[in-house]
């Protein structure tokens, strides 16, 4: 098995096929068929071609089993013989090939093939991304649109969490003590307790707050002096933080 050389074997098969094609061009059997006087010559040519095809069918059998059997069947031969001692001269006697066979390798319709290839290439092309034009962007808002002057009234600052604890009597509220650059710490209550079951992890974080929101009383005894900003997505809420190097009280915006 170490001596098996598949590429050279296929090269030998192709050499025989090429020579057979050349033999067809040289003998022009379609011309011979038009002249009754040349019938014997035509029979000889066709006999040689049948013998050559039989050898080709046997030689390709290790590589193309189904094709090999199809060629032999159209030659009126059912067996796949051993390659040993196979020659062009031993075509079985008594076999007459007269039936028109179905093309084993149909001729390609070039126009159809080109159209198919183009269709496949078009289908595999990446979608052409539309050129971005901000004037055509449809903004998706969750609240009413406001004017810049309205937004300019909002003062957003950086505040450091100094202390945080759960509010007694509430499952939702956390009580924050924050340094927002006021000179004294301020207090903000935020309903985020369920998102931060270990609220102490927030101590030392620098968060963003609405600093000029009017203070309001909550649960009758707590004052909340602003609002801590957060982001919510798919039911998850996260406080908006800034880099620890940003000074407390820095204005955002």
UniProtKB/TrEMBL annotation:
<keyword id="KW-0648">Protein biosynthesis</keyword>
<dbReference type="InterPro" id="IPR023458">
    <property type="entry name" value="Met-tRNA_ligase_1"/>
</dbReference>
<keyword id="KW-0694">RNA-binding</keyword>
<dbReference type="GO" id="GO:0046872">
    <property type="term" value="F:metal ion binding"/>
</dbReference>
<dbReference type="GO" id="GO:0004825">
    <property type="term" value="F:methionine-tRNA ligase activity"/>
</dbReference>
<keyword id="KW-0436">Ligase</keyword>
<protein>
    <recommendedName>
        <fullName>Methionine--tRNA ligase</fullName>
        <ecNumber>6.1.1.10</ecNumber>
    </recommendedName>
</protein>
<dbReference type="InterPro" id="IPR004495">
    <property type="entry name" value="Met-tRNA-synth_bsu_C"/>
</dbReference>
<feature type="domain" description="TRNA-binding">
    <location>
        <begin position="150"/>
        <end position="253"/>
    </location>
</feature>
<comment type="similarity">
    <text>Belongs to the class-I aminoacyl-tRNA synthetase family. MetG type 1 subfamily.</text>
</comment>
<dbReference type="Pfam" id="PF19303">
    <property type="entry name" value="Anticodon_3"/>
</dbReference>
<dbReference type="GO" id="GO:0005524">
    <property type="term" value="F:ATP binding"/>
</dbReference>
<dbReference type="GO" id="GO:0005829">
    <property type="term" value="C:cytosol"/>
</dbReference>
<keyword id="KW-0067">ATP-binding</keyword>
<dbReference type="InterPro" id="IPR002547">
    <property type="entry name" value="tRNA-bd_dom"/>
</dbReference>
<keyword id="KW-0547">Nucleotide-binding</keyword>
<dbReference type="GO" id="GO:0006431">
    <property type="term" value="P:methionyl-tRNA aminoacylation"/>
</dbReference>
<comment type="subunit">
    <text>Homodimer.</text>
</comment>
<dbReference type="GO" id="GO:0000049">
    <property type="term" value="F:tRNA binding"/>
</dbReference>
<keyword id="KW-0963">Cytoplasm</keyword>
<comment type="function">
    <text>Is required not only for elongation of protein synthesis but also for the initiation of all mRNA translation through initiator tRNA(fMet) aminoacylation.</text>
</comment>
<keyword id="KW-0820">tRNA-binding</keyword>
<dbReference type="InterPro" id="IPR009080">
    <property type="entry name" value="tRNAsynth_Ia_anticodon-bd"/>
</dbReference>
<dbReference type="InterPro" id="IPR041872">
    <property type="entry name" value="Anticodon_Met"/>
</dbReference>
<keyword id="KW-0862">Zinc</keyword>
<keyword id="KW-0030">Aminoacyl-tRNA synthetase</keyword>
<comment type="similarity">
    <text>Belongs to the class-I aminoacyl-tRNA synthetase family. MetG type 2B subfamily.</text>
</comment>
<dbReference type="Pfam" id="PF01588">
    <property type="entry name" value="tRNA_bind"/>
</dbReference>
<dbReference type="InterPro" id="IPR012340">
    <property type="entry name" value="NA-bd_OB-fold"/>
</dbReference>
<keyword id="KW-0479">Metal-binding</keyword>
């Amino acid at each position: 098995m170490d001596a098996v050389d598949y590429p050279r074997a296929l090269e030998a098969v192709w050499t025989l096929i090429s020579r057979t094609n050349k033999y067809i061009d040289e003998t022009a059997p379609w011309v011979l068929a038009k002249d009754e006087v040349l019938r014997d010559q035509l029979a000889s040519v066709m006999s040689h071609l049948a013998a050559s095809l039989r050898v080709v069918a046997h030689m390709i059998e290790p590589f193309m089993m189904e094709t090999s059997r199809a060629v032999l069947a159209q030659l009126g031969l059912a067996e796949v013989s051993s390659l040993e001692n196979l020659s062009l001269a031993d075509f079985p006697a008594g076999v007459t090939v007269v039936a028109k066979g179905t093309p084993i390798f149909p001729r390609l319709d070039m126009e159809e093939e080109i159209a198919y290839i183009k269709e496949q290439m078009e289908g595999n092309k990446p979608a052409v991304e539309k050129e971005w034009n901000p004037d055509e962007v449809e903004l998706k808002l969750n609240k009413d649109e406001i004017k810049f002057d309205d937004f300019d009234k909002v003062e957003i600052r950086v505040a450091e969490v100094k202390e945080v604890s759960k509010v007694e009597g509430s499952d939702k509220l956390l009580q924050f003590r924050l340094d927002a650059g006021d000179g004294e710490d301020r207090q903000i209550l935020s309903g985020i307790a369920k998102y931060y079951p270990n609220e102490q992890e927030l101590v030392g974080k620098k968060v963003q707050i609405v600093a000029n929101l009017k203070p309001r009383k909550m649960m009758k005894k707590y004052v909340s002096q602003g609002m801590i900003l957060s982001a919510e997505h798919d039911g998850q809420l996260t406080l908006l933080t800034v880099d620890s190097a940003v000074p407390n009280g820095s204005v955002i915006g």
